[in-house]
Amino acid sequence: MGADDGQALRRAALAADGGAARPGARGASGASTVVFSVLLAATAVAILGTLHFVAYVVPTEASMGIVQKIFYFHAPAGYAMYLGAAACFVGSAGYLARGTQWWDSLAKSGAQVAVAMGLIVLITGPLWAAKAWGVYWTWDPRLTTSLLSVLVYIAYVVLRAFTGDSHAERKFAAALGVLGAANLPIIHYSVRMWGGNHPTVITRGGGGLGHPDMKLALGLGFLSFTLLAVVLLWSRLRVDLASARLAEVEQEAIEAGIGED
């Protein structure tokens, strides 16, 4: 092994370690791991506490029965989908402006969170609708626009999974991430603009949360899903950045001829 190979190996080791050899980098990485572990534990406690509170403390709603309790997870999941979509928008805009790996990884992670939370919305919603409306699905404005948003972020995830990783393909995906966010305000205001069957529960004029424990349960649901969205976003971001660093290491090794006979 020559001097060039040795230098390449040292650069590869630094890249694989995320630059931990830099002064203070290892300590920062350790602190980040501790913060993530605390956040993960808080998320688990919040979710378990919410499940217990909704199942055993919150009273059953008179007209809908136990099916109404789906609402404490359905609405927060929709909010968490917004958080993932917002992260995808910020990451996509940042990549178009800066063109760096971190912004691209943020956009990818946000889209994945938006898909996961959007699927929860699309599963819990019809379960509620079957009791309230007698059908699992109707082409209500909010339902239709929500489905459209989920399909947009599924398209983003599929695009990133099955196409190349060149700058041009990343820019195309970033443009999709920016345009996909345009539908989010339409989802929010669709009931107000076009009416439809979707109920208004939280905002002024809505109903269904008459008991204080119901309002507390909804608040716990929002807290739990916010923490869950942040944990998923952070974990996916770390994985994608690590994968990108590994790809750089492999490319440097190939260019240096390391591993060749």
Quick structural summary:
By secondary structure, the protein is an all-alpha fold.
Q: What can you see in these coordinates?
A:
The protein has 8 helices and no strands. The protein is mostly helical. The radius of gyration is 23 Å and the shape is globular.
Q: Give the helices and strands as they follow along the chain.
A: HHHHHHHH
Strand content: under 5%
Sheet of most strands: none
Q: What is the helical fraction, as a range of percent?
A: over 70%
Mean pLDDT across all residues, rounded?
84
Q: What is the number of helical segments per DSSP (H or I, 4+ residues)? A: 8
The gyration radius over C-alpha positions equals: 23 Å
Mass-distribution shape: globular
Q: What low-confidence regions span 5 or more consecutive residues with pLDDT below 50?
A: 12-21
Span between N and C termini?
Answer: 11 Å
Q: How many strands in all?
A: 0
The chain-level structural class is mainly alpha
Give the helices and strands, then pairings.
Layout: H1 3-16, H2 25-56, H3 71-98, H4 101-132, H5 141-162, H6 167-180, H7 183-194, H8 212-256
Summarize this structure as a short list of keywords or feature phrases:
mainly alpha; globular; 261 residues
